[in-house]
């Protein structure tokens, strides 16, 4: 679940997104009114005023819309909208000087744009750059496949981190907490159907862990991890091997035939501290980019 601090940040960006949508509508009306008050302005002057209004409205609408859709990159669009609002405020100040008889109208819009720019920058700058909670959680289905005996602690840390940057309800970790007596193959199948990305966590012992009879688990067709990876590959999911605790990528000949394609997937390392955070952010960037590309 999101922490209280992350929830407050998420609520703040949603409020800012709503204000931005309202500003976008108001800008269109305000620009139309400004053009009516400038009947003798030449084509260039009309184009400058109209273009400025449309630019602010467009950026503010894009920011508000991206916020509601939880799109990656929303914070950058917010800075653009705030900058355009500040620049537009300067334009309204010049118009107030040029048309003193309509100065009240232009000064009112100057105040609106400055207030929005100040509010937006206050909220945007307060979010630490590079943190997972900079932006609203991305709605991306993520399935995490791992062996408890191989990478439990690292996976727990990864899951907590991903829950701050992605919708926790769409992160599937394992069958723990599912209905007792249900066929785990059915549980895995439903979870994979709902996922867009499958993270295969590979630790130092992932390839060689054996059962009580000394047989390698991956060689058992009913092994849960094997079923997860096989099913993900068969479904054409975006499968990303994540190498933890210094593990190396297994060669294709070391894997069962049905898992051999995994060996050719580009892996994402997740090294121990002090490199864990930087590796994690690279993985998160890749997931956000995939989410953004998947919606285009």
How much strand? Answer: 5-15%
3D shape: elongated
Name the helix and strand elements from N-terminus to C-terminus, one letter apiece.
Answer: HHHHEHEHEHEEH
Q: List low-confidence stretches.
A: none
- Report the sheet with the most strands, covering strand number, pairing sense and barrel closure: 5 strands, parallel
- What's the total helix number? 8
Total strands = 5
Biggest sheet: strands side by side, in what order?
2-1-3-4-5
- The helix-and-strand class reads alpha/beta
Distance between the termini: 28 Å
Helicity level = 55-70%
Q: Any chance you could write out the topology, listing elements then pairs?
A:
Blueprint: H1 4-36, H2 43-69, H3 74-98, H4 103-126, E1 142-145, H5 148-165, E2 171-172, H6 184-193, E3 197-202, H7 224-234, E4 238-244, E5 268-270, H8 276-295
Parallel strand pairs: 1-2, 1-3, 3-4, 4-5
Q: Can you offer a commentary on this structure?
A:
57% of the residues lie in helices and 7% in strands. The longest helix has 33 residues, at 4-36. A five-stranded parallel beta sheet has the order 2-1-3-4-5, with helices on both faces. By secondary structure, it is α/β, with parallel strands linked by helices.
């Amino acid at each position: 679940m999101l922490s209280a601090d992350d929830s407050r940040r998420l609520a703040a960006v949603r409020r800012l997104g709503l204000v931005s949508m309202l500003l976008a509508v108001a800008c269109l009306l305000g620009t139309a009114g400004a053009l009516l008050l400038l009947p003798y302005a030449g084509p260039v002057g009309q184009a400058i005023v109209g273009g400025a209004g449309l630019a602010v409205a467009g950026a503010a609408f894009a920011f508000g819309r991206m916020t509601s859709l939880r799109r990656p990159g929303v914070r950058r669009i917010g800075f653009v909208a705030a900058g355009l609002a500040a620049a537009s405020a300067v334009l309204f100040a010049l118009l107030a000087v040029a048309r003193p008889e309509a100065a009240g109208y232009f000064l009112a819009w100057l105040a609106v744009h400055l207030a929005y720019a100040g509010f937006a920058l206050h909220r945007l700058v307060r979010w630490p750059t590079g943190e997972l909670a900079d932006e609203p959680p991305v709605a991306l289905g993520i399935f995490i496949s791992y062996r408890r005996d191989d990478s439990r602690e690292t996976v727990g840390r990864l899951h907590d981190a991903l829950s701050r940057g992605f919708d926790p309800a769409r992160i599937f970790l394992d069958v723990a907490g599912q209905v007792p007596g249900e066929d785990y193959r059915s549980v895995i199948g439903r979870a994979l159907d709902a996922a867009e990305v499958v993270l295969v966590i590979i630790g130092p012992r992932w390839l060689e862990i054996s059962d009580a009879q000394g047989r390698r688990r991956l060689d058992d067709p009913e092994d849960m991890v094997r079923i997860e990876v096989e099913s993900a590959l068969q479904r054409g999911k975006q499968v990303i091997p994540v190498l933890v605790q210094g593990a190396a990528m297994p060669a294709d000949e070391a894997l069962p035939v049905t898992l051999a394609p995994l060996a050719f997937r580009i892996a994402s390392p997740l090294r121990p501290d002090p490199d864990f955070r930087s590796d994690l952010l690279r993985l998160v960037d890749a997931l956000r980019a995939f989410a953004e590309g998947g919606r285009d």
